[in-house]
Amino acid sequence: MVNKHFTSDLPTLLPPSSQECSRRQFLGRIGAGVGAISAAGLVVGEGQGAWAAGVQRPNWNSKSVKKEFGLQEGLVYMNNGTLGPVPNRVITASTNAWREMELNPAGNGFGTTLQQAEAVRQKAADYLGCDLDEIVIMPNTTQSMNAVAQGLHLSEGDRVLTTDQEHPGGVRCWEYYEKRFGVGIDRAVIPTPPESEEEIVDLLAAQITPKTKVISVAHVTTTTGLVLPIAKIAELAESNNCILCVDGAQGPGAMNINVRELNCDTYATSAHKWMLAPKGTGLLYINKRAAEKVDSLRLQDGYRYYTATSGTLDMPAAIGLGASIDFLTEIGKPRIEEWSLYLREMMYDKFLHMPKVTIFSPEAGTMASPLVTVGCEGMTGGDIAAALGKQDIVVKVVPYGNRISTHLYNDEEDVEKVVSAIKQLLG
Ligand SMILES: Cc1ncc(COP(=O)(O)O)c(C=O)c1O
Hints:
By secondary structure, this protein is an alpha/beta fold. It contains 16 helices and 15 strands. The protein is globular and about 60 Å long. 48% of the residues are buried.
């Protein structure tokens, strides 16, 4: 059943107080698209077939990809939205770099190891579709959002427009302004799920005031995996003279994202989620046109990996991030998105017809991501997660119930397992 009655209600998260027919639109239109041919000519929705066409490493399929990860034997890991597993080769790249650095900490740490870490910026820029002088390697989304917010120097009376579906990591930075400097925050209430992208834009537009200086939204919401229409929100921001800051923690990795196409001013992501990179790695994109407006202490000395205002960071982790980007690129961004969404639609369809289950995420289409949130009648999200945990199935507890993710290392068997386990729990 799809949720038709609830709008937002997020007790635990909230604080007190495209262009022409894109690939995603195409996939959305065909839904699960069993056997359909995608825009890229890949077979969509035929399970292993999705891996088979046009692969750079033809012997790879979803099973062999799974072996690239060190996940506990038998674990059905469906909480990538919290933290993603890193491929074994990423651990190797990081530990090799770490060992090498420790041979001569200062000599290598501020020599070859630092050079290798710095080189990852270009890979990251290529991966996200921007220029080298628009990208910073950061520890996570939260610190990137903080750095951006701090750099905007808002003052009393200014307003920030956001939604009621944000993660604290994307809004504490604005709440700090509210508390310390009398900046106002407006929150558009987003239905779960909304009817259309236009509805989201209209809900945001209705809250804009002449005092609104910033629009700050998640690209993919932490609560239900809703994909917000960032390019359309960018038009709204531009026409109202606002800066658009995007919390993309749940974005790049499984989804094929190009930040330039989104046309936002800033975009922060956590590479340790969907990009399958070492924990404590993230990326911050600042569009050139926005660079002068974002004048933060953290970025005072530029965007290089090490600066006088970044201080010394975790270089082996950054080098691991480079290896993760190589891994994702080798498999192919479109292929990963296709697979993740194929599994997502499979799971969505199974839940749709299950008694006692309410789906809070959008149906297939441009608003869908590889995250599905379901609520179960008579059981809390905590009850479900604990019971599944006993069966080695990992899902996330969110205010609406449980959020379940699908990524390239998951397969149809994982989907079957989580769906049938929930069905059994509900009797
Ligand atoms: C939408 C969103 N923003 C921000 C964060 C915080 O991410 P991090 O802890 O990597 O800063 C999360 C984490 O789940 C998230 O889902």
